[in-house]
Specification:
Distance between the termini: 33 Å
Strand content: 25-35%
CATH class: Alpha Beta
Radius of gyration: 17 Å
CATH topology: Rossmann fold
Strand order of the largest sheet: 6-7-8-3-9-10
Number of helices: 9
Number of domains: 1
Helix content: 25-40%
CATH architecture: 3-Layer(aba) Sandwich
CATH superfamily: P-loop containing nucleotide triphosphate hydrolases
Length: about 230
Amino acid sequence: MLSVSGLNVYYGESHVVRDVSFVLNDGESVAIMGRNGMGKTTLLKSLIGILRPRGGKIVLNDRDITNAESYRRVEAGMGYVPQGRMIFPYLTVEENIIAGMETSPSKEIPEYVYAVFPVLREMRTRRAGNLSGGQQQQLAIARALVSNPKVLVLDEPTEGIQPSIIKEIARALNKLKADRKFALLVSEQVLSFAREIADRFLIIEKGHFVYEGSRDNLDTKSIHAYLTI
């Protein structure tokens, strides 16, 4: 569903992502893990088109999107939830969700959004800036989902969220992925959350992958070592 090969991404003259290659299969969930500053967010920003790679190739569902604008990537089937959520604070919950439906022929919010995130129905007329961090994260996920992505990309979704809400988000993502049939790519530092949702784990260190494991053969000791050094 998503193929990345030989990707090199820079911030200014700093070479942050170095010759990264990986494949995300149809319906698969992959967690990219690593400490702050190792390249997770830079990699994800390059996938959605916020940063342009200086080398390599990105293919989504057999379509080369390496140099496509961000909105073209959404049209091609990529949904993106940025670090920090980046909801529109002065718009209502309902207006935020509708903002994600630019590529949808209908502007009616799908019922499944409120079924999975009932708090959004309760607060649909409230300004998004007045929601808690966990509620804003649910809103950001809902906004990305209504474009009907084939691949949903989440950057640090547990950041600043209390543990009970983290568990709710993990359950919601698993249900949504099963029902909506999308692949999931998430950058994360919280291993307990990643284990709830991911089939495969990639550790990024200084811009390149240094470890790969599946849910069945996960070496948690090695992952903890990379996350805490």
